Model the fold of this input.
Amino acid sequence: MTEDASGTPAVEFTVTRSGGKIVDVQSSSPEINHFLRVLKLSRAHNTWLNYALDLKLFFSIVKVPPHAVGRPECLTFMEHQDREGRADATINRRLAAVSSMFDELHLLDPERFSRNPVFPFQRSRHERRRRASLYRKQPERIPDVLATEQLQTLFGAVHTWRDRTLILLMWVSCLRISEALAIQFDDIECSNHSIQIRAGKGGHPRTAYMDSLTLEALNRYLDHERGELSPEEPHVFVALKGRARGTPLSVNSVQKLLTYHAKRGHLDAFHAHLLRHTGITQLIQGGMSEPAVRKLVGHRHPASLEPYLHLKDEFVADEFATAQQGLDMQTYRALLTGGDA
Done:
C-alpha cells in the first residue's frame, strides 16, 4: 500500500463491474465514499460514474488522502495532466470533481475540511472567489457541425439499420449517445413519433421526437435485424453479433463504431457528439423557437444555446437582412440625400 510522507495510507479504489458495466466504485477513504454515496443518491448515474473515475485518477496521481490535499497537490495533478496532453476542458472537468467533493466534505465536517483547494470558499459577498480558483480560463466554445456531404458520407458508410437509426436519433432528434442507448420499448410512442427520455443529463426526464425517416429506419431495424433476438431484453438497441450478441450496446462501443466508419469516409475530425451539435444548430437556423429547442434537447439554462446562436456569422447576417425587410427606410434615405431619393 502506498503511503505519503507522513505515513498515512494513500487512497485505493475498487471498481465493481457487472455485465460489462461499472455498477459500484468504493475507496479506502470513508470521506470519498460518503461523497460518492451522496452523488449516487442525488445525481444521474453518468454524473456519479464520471466523478468517481475522475477522483480515482486524481488520487492515483497525488497519492495522499483527502485531508492532506492542498493547492500543491492540485498543481501536481495539473502538471501531470499537462504532460499527458490533456485539454483545458478535460483538466477543468476533473478539477470540478475534486472541488465538488470538498464542498460536500465541508458540509460533513467543516472543521476538518475548512477549505476547498480548487475553488476556495467565499468568505464574504465582496470576495472575488473566481480569481482564487485553479480552473483554467477557456475561450468560448463554438460547436462544430457536420456538412450535408459529411452526413451523407457517414450515413452511407454504416451497414445496419440499427446504426442508421442511432445516427438519425443523435442528429435529427438531437439525443446524446447515452440517451439513445437507454431507450426501451415502453419509451416509444409510434402514434405521435415520440420517445420518453427517462434518464436525461442531470436526471431530468423529457419527451423527444422522431421524424418519419427515423421511424422508418427504426422499424426496419426491429423487423429485419432485431427480430426475435433477445425477446426478454427491454432495451431497443443491442449487439447483433459476437459474444455480446443480444445485450445492450455500450456508449464506448457506439463511439468506436461510428468513429471507425467516419475514418473510412475520411472524416478524421469526427466524434459522435457532432451529430447532436449539428441537429441543434439546424433546428435553430430552421426557425424553431429557443424555448422549444431547449425543451426538446434537454437544456435547462437559457444561455446554453448561445454557442449555437453564434455559430455562423452568415446566419446572423441573413437574420439581420430579413429583419430589415420590415422597416420603411425611404423617409430616412430622403433626409440623407436632401430629398433626392
Remarks:
- The chain is about 50% helix and 5% strand.
- The radius of gyration is 25 Å.
- The chain has a mean pLDDT of 86.
- Residues 332 and 341 are 9 Å apart (CA to CA).
